[in-house]
Amino acid sequence: MDKKLTFEEIFQQNERRIHYQIHKMNIRDPHHDFFQEGLVALWNAFETYQPDKGPMATYFNYIIRNRLIDRMRHDTRQHEIHQQTVHEQHTQYTDGNYHRGTEGARPIAANHQLQLADSNLWKNLQSQLTDKQWKWVYYAIIQEMSYKTIAEQENTTVDAVKNWGRQVKKKLKDPHFRHMLSLDDKDI
């Protein structure tokens, strides 16, 4: 008599097989997500097994292992996407084009302490900066353009534009440089 096994019987006989594959691949599974994935794989393998193709145990191992690998790849991709999103949000928040305080963020150009109409100040500042540093001041401060837009316009990277800004900020913090530009009484 050829008795067909139920899935419950297959599960009882092969539950350790799932744990073995998880352990073999050094997967940490505190929430049993991978075990559940292995269980679904065991079910699929049970449903699709063809006895004339080879031993059942080999087939189960193959299906479970590959399903766990697929899950790890999926989780890794999701983690990378999340990390990229966090990085982009952090970059956008810290790109230097805004003053941040308890009242929220406001564009640098909205800082009323810096007189945008003082053309002598801007000409004097421009004469003391490199071309790239001046481009950062002009585009990021005066025109209020984003770093990404500046980078596209200047055919460079966002990191390069940020570096221009860091150089300018460093100069503006230097007391000697501020005195030379008559900025001692201005808060930039």
TrEMBL record:
Care to name a GO molecular-function term for this sequence?
sigma factor activity
- Family annotation (InterPro entries): RNA_pol_sigma-70-like, RNA_pol_sigma-70_dom, RNA_pol_sigma70_r2, RNA_pol_sigma_r2, RNA_pol_sigma_r3/r4-like, WH-like_DNA-bd_sf
**Which is one Pfam family of this protein?**
Sigma70_r2
Q: Which GO terms describe its biological process?
A: DNA-templated transcription initiation
Domain called RNA polymerase sigma-70 region: residue spans: 11-77
Which keywords does UniProt give here?
Answer: DNA-binding, Sigma factor, Transcription, Transcription regulation
| Keyword match Coiled coil | no
In which family does this protein belong, per the annotation?
A: Belongs to the sigma-70 factor family. ECF subfamily.
Protein name (record): Sigma-70 family RNA polymerase sigma factor
Source organism of the structure: Lentibacillus cibarius
